Amino acid sequence: xxxxxxxxxxxxxxxxxxxxxxxxxxxxxxxxxxxxxxxxxxxxxxxxxxxxxxxxxxxxxxxxxxxxxxxxxxxxxxxxxxxxxxxxxxxxxxxxxxxxxxxxxxxxxxxxxxxxxxxxxxxxxxxxxxxxxxxxxxxxxxxxxxxxxxxxxxxxxxxxxxxxxxxxxxxxxxxxxxxxxxxxxxxxxxxxxxxxxxxxxxxxxxxxxxxxxxxxxxxxxxxxxxxxxxxxxxxxxxxxxxxxxxxxxxxxxxxxxxxxxxxxxxxxxxxxxxxxxxxxxxxxxxxxxxxxxxxxxxxxxxxxxxxxxxxxxxxxxxxxxxxxxxx
Length: 327
Known about the structure:
alpha/beta
């Protein structure tokens, strides 16, 4: 067995508070007795697993969909702030071991801007993690972040200089007829990456990266399937010479390879990792686990055993995250 690489950083690893704990029960009663204490724990099994795997720092984030599924805007704001205050308290108790991603009530753009500024400047968080589209008001009123009202938010994120992690959530029940009767397609099996990849592509097409050229976005699960399709997205039926009809000035691959970073969260596939490196370069790939929904031990053992050049392996295991998040 290969020696454990020290100094790992993980950055899609979750916890829950009372108001969001039930969101994770969808994984089933057969795992709830194990999953529930994992979500609520900070200082016992979480740190113990980190130590065993050589994880120096974990960047904490709220479970999903959490704040994004709270249609009552005032309640969403309260839950986001409560989550962020808990992260800050945990960071103070365990200096150096934990960093924080801000939960944001994206239902209210101005409040989200103020909250991410508070989290980064006062609480010393390293970025924000948002669980896909937000619900607000009437059922079915969904907010995607390529909408015009979010331009001030993206300018604020760029000015702060911190990355924004676009994390998955399922589509609303019944929104996609093709899933009906096939619940196995929901969650990490398919719907998570399908929903998140569409959202990421919408952001690219909106032209926001032309307006905010220093904006940094993180995607988990080795890019939610996008790296494998970059060529096809930009060159579909190339002989027809048909331009994309969107606000962005360049092709999708140009923005994706310049503005996006990927993590290995929940996708411990060496073949998929090698392809992501081919498309993005090793400097834009970061190790992560997706605790507590995946195993820190399994993820770290996979990372330790990877047959990659030593410099690439060291970057992916922790150095890239330290550079991006200024840890």
